[in-house]
Amino acid sequence: MATEKSGGFLKFLIYATGPALITASVVVGPGSIVTASKAGGHFGYSLVWLLFCSSLFMMAYTYMGSRIGCCADRSILTLTAEKYGRWVSILAGISSFLVVAFFQSGNNLGVATAMTGLTGIDEFYWPIVFTGISLAMLFLSTNLYKLLEILMKVLIGLMVLSFLANLFYTGIRPVAFLKGFIPSFPEGSGDVARGMFPTTFSVVAALYAAHLAQGKKWRREDAGTAGKDAAVGIFMLFFISLIILSTAAGAFYGKEGIELGSAAQLSGALEGLFGSSARYIFCFGLAAAAFSSFLVNAMAGGGLLVDGLGMDKSFDRLPVKIGTTAALLIGMLIAMLALKTEFNPVTTILIAQAATLLAVPVCAVLLLLLANDRSVMGEMKNGPVVNGIAGIGFLVLCWMIWNTIGSIQAKFAALGAGG
């Protein structure tokens, strides 16, 4: 079923895109906003090149995931079970679910910060409200994929408009911006650089792109459209993150005493420099980003879990809805505990990071293997350019995993010392 329409790029954007834009909406959330803002606020435009590279890797893996979804007549983890054993698909499904479920609390906290900034209503109530909205959409929609596609296109459009409006306040320095594409690591940028990769380059989201392509009912003849969709969708991820980084570089770089460790601190800093209108505009974009990640992130975890266990992964079937509900509720409860008690989320972060150690390499290897498997892809299997980019990306993932192991060891040691 070919989906690409004649009539130019605008019609392509409206009718033929979808899965990669939804994938981008998973990645553009409170975490990526804070990380891009810290990169720009502390180091100016120096890490633009790193954002570009991580987006390029994400594009390659999303390209592979979407095209596998087009070419395979079964779900991606069903294929995995048939080719490599059910235990591999279970490992991929469970670890992906844990990553999603425990990081879902960040989306709850992000939407709480944004809505409190817009309305003044206490943060505690917003996780309940948006989890309720998500559950209503999940169980009442008769065509969940179509609803997601329309909603994510609208939310991404709102993000672009909101964050561009903030950039209007700060402006951009063209020469410094262009120099940012020259690779360098400013002194003290290591932690921000390590944070930028996982908040831009999400292999779990790329694996879920195969589900999204099948949700759009793409077939083998749509693989070309899927490739273009991956380019457009992940370019939007890069563009939004670049706007945020550039805004922070213009507003905060070189200024002393400005804290950028959370979305609340960001909105407060913008208000201090440019007035309440800048804060409202930022919170509006943050709300769009947090909610765009909210339901789709949980659906990615729920869908991959049930697929890995061998159950029906169709969007509108009960197993996916139950798995998604579990991810939504876990994220909501962690956020509510963090907002109203002395609960320290370090333990849940450690669980999510430990799950990442399993999910990231397993998902990346599966995408590489299946995208190069002629029995699955036929003539649509990867070419040398995609394999080259994906291969470099995999080496970067290995570097991330090594750093994560060290981070987890240090945090466990700190917990032990504290106990």
Describe the structure.
The protein has 419 residues and is mainly alpha-helical. It has a single domain, classed as Amino acid/polyamine transporter I. The protein has helices spanning 9-16, 19-27, 30-43, 48-71, 76-84, 86-119, 126-140, 144-170, 174-179, 190-200, 203-215, 223-252, 263-274, 276-308, 318-340, 346-371, 374-377, 384-418. The protein starts with 8 loop residues before the first helix and ends with a helix. The relative contact order is 0.21. Residues 1-6 have low confidence and may be disordered.
Which properties best describe this structure?
single chain; 419 residues; mainly alpha; Amino acid/polyamine transporter I; 18 helices; 79% helix
Number of strands: 0
Mean pLDDT: 87
Instruction: Indicate the proportion of strand residues.
Output: under 5%
Number of helices, counting only DSSP H or I runs of 4 residues or more: 18
State the CATH topology: Amino acid/polyamine transporter I
| Principal-axes shape call | globular
Number of domains: 1
Protein structure class: mainly alpha
- Order of helices and strands, N to C? HHHHHHHHHHHHHHHHHH
Rounded radius of gyration (Å): 20 Å
The top level CATH class name? Mainly Alpha
CATH architectural name? Up-down Bundle
